[in-house]
């Protein structure tokens, strides 16, 4: 069986979901093929330029990005006012399907999901198509039609999809696909020893995705340094070396360790009593899979603010809007085991470390049903 996985290189979440699904398909004996929709099916220059514009908007004009995100939700993927942007790459996608003849297609980004749906709506015969939604919000760009199966993060998200007239039988709560390491159980003391941390000391992990500069980690470091209670912290600067150097200077002489990009996120989160981060979809999925309560700070406009609202309402996260508020929240939560226990109880309801396997099971079931028919 060959499965085509369509992703996009905007942020690290979509690519990580694609890799997690590919590993899960391979473990079941299928042949996964991961394609970057914008780079491979539109044009490398388009992928680079649009990604640069996306990051520029997030850094320099977040209000403009938030407006575009809101308008996109109102328009939907089939709107003529989208000027065809939700269908870019459709022609090459059709050629790829003809050449590759996959048994199924899984999309982990809204644009390739819309392109697949457009081909189906035009009457073209396409393989079974599942879209795995990588955020904790129901945005209409994730709801192109027809799609055989929508895999979503939580029951609340499913309810919103159904409320927007997606057939209930097509929306399944699987969780967001996370890397296989989250399926193993690791005690916090063992994880801390593996990372060279004190096993019994309260531990905070801070991160802001693979592009650390998109977060506000300097504020987080200063808030942690201002706390008078004993703790240890690991601050993940991602792939930004200049940010890592700056944070290392701020944390010099303290119990804060600054690191760059981290591959073994499951062990890192297993070591944490608390995660301080912005509300990226993959970060929330990994935190819930690891059972780590969150303090959210520096979330970006658009989907991350939506994720933030979901997390706070679900009781798995507290939200800070300023450095001073962040320091006060950290001090209160780290000094209140009952609050951490309540948050962990809510996280246990949402955590789905086997999400990738659930999606794979559904896709393989679709392939079998179509083959039998």
The residue-averaged pLDDT reads 94
Fourth CATH level, the homologous superfamily of the largest domain: Glycogen Phosphorylase B
Helix proportion: 40-55%
Number of helices: 16
Shape: globular
Query: How many individual β-strands?
Result: 12
**Helix and strand pattern:** EHEHHHHEHEEHEHEHEHEHEHEHEHHH
In whole angstroms, how far apart are the ends? 17 Å
Beta content: 5-15%
Stretches where pLDDT falls below 50 for ≥5 residues?
A: none
* Total individual domains: 2
**Strand order within the widest beta sheet:** 2-1-3-4-5-6
User: Structural class, from secondary structure content?
Assistant: alpha/beta
At the fold tier of CATH, the topology name of the largest domain is: Rossmann fold
Task: Identify the CATH architecture of the largest domain.
Answer: 3-Layer(aba) Sandwich
Q: Main beta sheet: strand number and arrangement?
A: 6 strands, parallel
Write down the CATH class of the largest domain: Alpha Beta
Return Rg in Å: 21 Å
Tags for this entry?
about 375 residues; Rossmann fold; 6-stranded parallel beta sheet; globular
Q: Care to describe what's here?
A:
The protein folds into 2 domains: 2-178 and 353-372, Glycogen Phosphorylase B (Rossmann fold, 3-Layer(aba) Sandwich); 184-350, Glycogen Phosphorylase B (Rossmann fold), CATH 3.40.50. Helices cover 49% and strands 14% of the residues. The model has no long low-confidence stretch (mean pLDDT 94). It has a 6-stranded parallel beta sheet with strand order 2-1-3-4-5-6, sandwiched between helices. Strands 9-8-7-10-11-12 form a 6-stranded parallel beta sheet. Helix 1 (13-27) crosses helix 16, helix 9 packs parallel to helix 10 (241-251) and helix 9 packs across helix 14 (323-334). It is globular and about 65 Å long. It is an alpha/beta fold and 373 residues long. The longest helix is centred in the last third of the chain and has 18 residues, at 355-372. The chain has helices spanning 13-27, 37-42, 44-60, 62-75, 90-100, 110-121, 155-163, 188-194, 217-226, 241-251, 265-270, 281-290, 303-314, 323-334, 337-350, 355-372, and strands at residues 2-7, 31-36, 104-107, 129-132, 149-152, 171-173, 203-207, 232-236, 256-259, 274-277, 294-296, 317-319. It is built from 16 helices and 12 strands. Helix 10 links the parallel strand 8 and strand 9 (256-259). It starts with a strand and ends with a helix.
């Amino acid at each position: 069986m060959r499965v085509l996985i369509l992703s996009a290189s905007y942020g690290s979440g979509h690519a990580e979901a694609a890799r997690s699904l590919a590993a899960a398909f391979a473990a079941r004996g299928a042949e996964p093929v991961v394609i970057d929709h914008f780079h491979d099916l539109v044009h490398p220059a388009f992928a680079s330029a649009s990604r640069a514009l996306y990051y520029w908007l997030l850094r320099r004009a977040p209000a403009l990005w938030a407006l575009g995100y809101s308008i996109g939700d109102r328009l939907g993927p089939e709107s003529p006012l989208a000027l065809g942007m939700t269908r870019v790459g459709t022609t090459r996608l059709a050629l790829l399907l003809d050449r590759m003849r996959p048994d199924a297609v899984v999309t982990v980004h809204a644009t390739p999901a819309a392109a697949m749906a457009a081909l189906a709506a035009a009457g073209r015969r396409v393989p079974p198509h599942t879209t795995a939604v990588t955020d904790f919000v129901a945005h209409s760009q994730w709801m192109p039609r027809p799609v055989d199966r929508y895999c979503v993060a939580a029951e609340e998200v499913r309810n919103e999809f159904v409320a927007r007239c997606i057939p209930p039988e097509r929306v399944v709560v699987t969780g967001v696909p996370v890397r296989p390491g989250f399926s193993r159980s690791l005690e916090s003391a063992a994880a801390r020893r593996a990372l060279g941390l004190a096993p019994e000391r309260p531990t905070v992990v801070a991160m802001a995705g693979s592009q650390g500069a998109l977060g506000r980690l300097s504020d987080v470091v200063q808030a942690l340094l201002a706390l008078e209670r004993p703790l240890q912290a690991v601050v993940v600067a991602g792939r930004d070396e200049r940010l890592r150097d700056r944070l290392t200077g701020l944390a010099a002489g303290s119990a804060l360790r600054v690191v760059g990009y981290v591959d073994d996120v499951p062990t890192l989160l297993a070591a944490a009593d608390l995660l301080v981060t912005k509300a990226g979809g993959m970060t929330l999925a990994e935190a819930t899979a690891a059972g780590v309560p969150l303090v959210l700070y520096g979330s970006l406009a658009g989907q991350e603010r939506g994720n933030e609202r979901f997390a706070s309402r679900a009781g798995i996260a507290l939200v800070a809007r300023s450095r001073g508020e962040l320091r006060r929240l950290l001090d209160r939560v780290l000094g209140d085991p009952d609050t951490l226990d309540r948050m962990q109880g809510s996280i246990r309801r949402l955590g789905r470390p086997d999400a990738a396997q659930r999606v794979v099971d559904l896709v393989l079931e679709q392939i079998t049903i179509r083959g039998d028919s």
